[in-house]
Amino acid sequence: MARLSTLHGRAARLALATALSGLALAPPAHAAPGPGAGERVPLRVATYNIHAGAGIDDVFDLDRQAAALRALHADVIGLEEVDVHWGARSQGRDVAAELAARLGMHVSFAPIYSLAPDRPGGPRREFGVAVLSRYAILGAANHEITRLSTQVPNPVPAPAPGFGEVRLRVRGVPVHVYVTHLDYRGDPAVRVAQVADTRRIMNAGRGARKILLGDFNAVPSAPELAPLWRELTDAEPGANSFPADVPDRRIDYVAVQEGAVRVRDAAVAETLASDHRPVVADLLLRR
Q1: Dihedral, CA of residue 256, residue 259, residue 264 and residue 270, to nearest 10
Q2: What confidence tens digit (pLDDT) does each residue in 62-87 have?
Q3: What is the pTM of this model?
Q4: Residue 30 confidence (pLDDT) above 70
Q5: Between helices 95-103 and 62-70, what is the axis angle to 10°?
Q6: CA 173: distance to chain centroid?
Q7: Does residue 211 contact residue 76 with C-beta atoms inside 8 Å?
Q8: Superfamily of domain 3-13+45-286 in the CATH hierarchy
């Protein structure tokens, strides 16, 4: 199971220290957060690259991943590297739907790749990102951003799907949640284009509080991420997220709209249910 690794800020450490069991993150405090509470709505979110359902040991185990996700007590979770009938590595299963069912959450899946079935009459083989939500999903979109395909020979950067967006209403507050998985290659050129695409798409979502979740495949100080921090606040958890066994860098993010969403605290949860660790953040949404 997951447990708290590091909290963002002394106040957060003091506030949660007595509420932790030592094995799992405490459930979010959905009571009014103090004076002026009517102006802010609490929301706990997380991001987790689930490695197609496999742990750091490369063993496919949805029971283990569901337990790690459940221990976060998150209201909204962005998932990366999600298989839906992809193949043998995930037993041909719909990982997005199965995790949602086990957690009792709504789900929206945004494929990056959608390939022909491997047998006549079979389901399409898909791989992408997903959002799990305790709140009803009022609408969803699968946006295109620049990608360098791993499924075709001699790929060139081109628009491709897999930038997921869902619309929620959290206690009356409209929220747009985005989930992404940026390019993994050492050359940052594709990530530069993806960051520009991300800003364009998110800036079009008016009238809602905005939250970006994902595996950015770059550390916070990477030059290609700098444009994101003009409009978004990084929920700094104070710990690394990859690789899960001995993390030496943070490439997984919760980022929120500057001014409209406030970060109360953030953490990296210790678990070997994937090759990444989840990042979880307690937020306050401005009404």
Answers
A1: 10
A2: 999 999 999 999 999 999 999 999 99
A3: 0.90
A4: no
A5: 50
A6: 20
A7: yes
A8: Endonuclease/exonuclease/phosphatase (3.60.10.10)
SS3 state of residue 142: strand
Q: Which two tokens stand for residue 64?
A: 């283990």
- How far apart CA 143 and CA 95 sit, in angstroms, is 21
Q: Which pLDDT band, with edges at 50, 70 and 90, does 173 fall under?
A: very high
Q: What does the pLDDT look like over 257-272, one tens digit per residue? A: 999 999 999 999 999 9
Nearest CA to 49 out of 184, 195, 168, 159 is that of 184
> So where are the chain's domains?
3-13+45-286
Specify the pLDDT at position 206: 79
Q: List the end-to-end C-alpha distance of the chain, in Å, as a whole number.
A: 34
